[in-house]
């Protein structure tokens, strides 16, 4: 038995099976972690969406890490800064290509809040934001990071068409201290143009991660079963050869 199990071919089989099982189990655990992260994200978004809107300073006081402030409802009052409108290009919503108009709102304390006013199909004319004093309610978002393969905005100069809402980059061209968060507009008084569609809500689904967990664990069990079958067949063949001799 030892001669069969410790042959070069069988040792290679043992090592290959062990590596394969370890890899697949770790992939299953990774998918389980992603499932749990998604469940926590969904729970946090739902819990925050049910809260009453708060001013920007109260939102920013909740956590020093702005990444943990997303999805809280925010209320703000101020005036849109003239001639500081931006367009987020290369976006789509509900299967339509279009742009997101972004405006800079100067709040009562002088700070600047970027407001993603909504989505407009490419064929539509981008309307001006409401003039005068405006009160808005929005959903807190944080500065967008460039993803691998995505287009890059020019590092210098004034931008009018942008690939993403990169707050530190846009702060260079805005007339005031820019808050480290922006908002997706949910409501406005006076109302914004009806041409604008509200930015789509985040998808609160769990995705396929749990099924992938089951898949990887089943694959690892199949690998073990295949290893057992091959080993047993090799031992049986060895016993037959010994008996025949």
Give a written overview of the molecule.
The chain has 245 residues and is an alpha+beta fold. The chain has five helices and eight strands; from the N terminus they run αααβββββββαβα. The chain folds into two domains: 79 residues; 118 residues, no CATH class. The chain has a five-stranded mixed β-barrel. Strand 3 and strand 4 form a beta hairpin. The longest helix is centred in the first third of the chain and has 42 residues. It is elongated and about 100 Å long. The two termini are 16 Å apart. The mean pLDDT is 91.
Short description:
With 245 residues, the chain is an alpha+beta fold. The protein is built from 5 helices and 8 strands; from the N terminus they run αααβββββββαβα. It folds into 2 domains: 2-41 and 206-244; 72-189, no CATH class.
Notable traits:
alpha+beta, elongated, 2 domains, 5-stranded mixed beta barrel, 24% strand, 5 helices, 245 residues
């Amino acid at each position: 038995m030892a001669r069969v199990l410790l042959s070069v071919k069988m040792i290679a089989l043992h090592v290959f099976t062990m590596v394969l099982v370890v890899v697949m189990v770790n992939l299953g655990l990774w998918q389980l972690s992603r499932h749990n992260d998604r469940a926590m994200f969904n729970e946090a978004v739902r819990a925050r969406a049910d809260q009453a809107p708060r001013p920007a300073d109260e939102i920013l006081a909740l956590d020093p890490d702005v990444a943990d402030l997303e999805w809280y409802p925010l209320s703000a009052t101020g005036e849109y800064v003239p001639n500081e409108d931006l367009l987020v290009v290369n976006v789509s919503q509900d299967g339509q290509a279009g742009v997101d108009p972004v405006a800079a709102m100067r709040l009562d304390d002088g700070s600047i809040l970027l407001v993603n006013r909504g989505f407009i199909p490419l064929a539509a004319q981008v309307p001006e934001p409401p003039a005068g004093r405006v009160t808005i309610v929005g959903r807190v978002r944080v500065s967008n990071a460039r993803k691998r393969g995505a287009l890059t905005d020019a590092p210098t100069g004034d931008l009018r068409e942008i690939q993403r809402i990169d707050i530190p980059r846009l702060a260079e061209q805005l007339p005031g201290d820019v808050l480290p968060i922006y908002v997706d507009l949910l409501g406005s008084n006076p109302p914004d143009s009806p041409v604008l569609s509200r930015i789509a809500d985040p998808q609160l689904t769990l995705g396929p991660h749990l099924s992938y967990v089951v898949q990887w664990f089943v694959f690892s069990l199949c690998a073990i079963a295949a290893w057992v079958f091959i080993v047993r067949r090799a031992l049986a063949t060895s016993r037959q050869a010994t008996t025949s001799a």
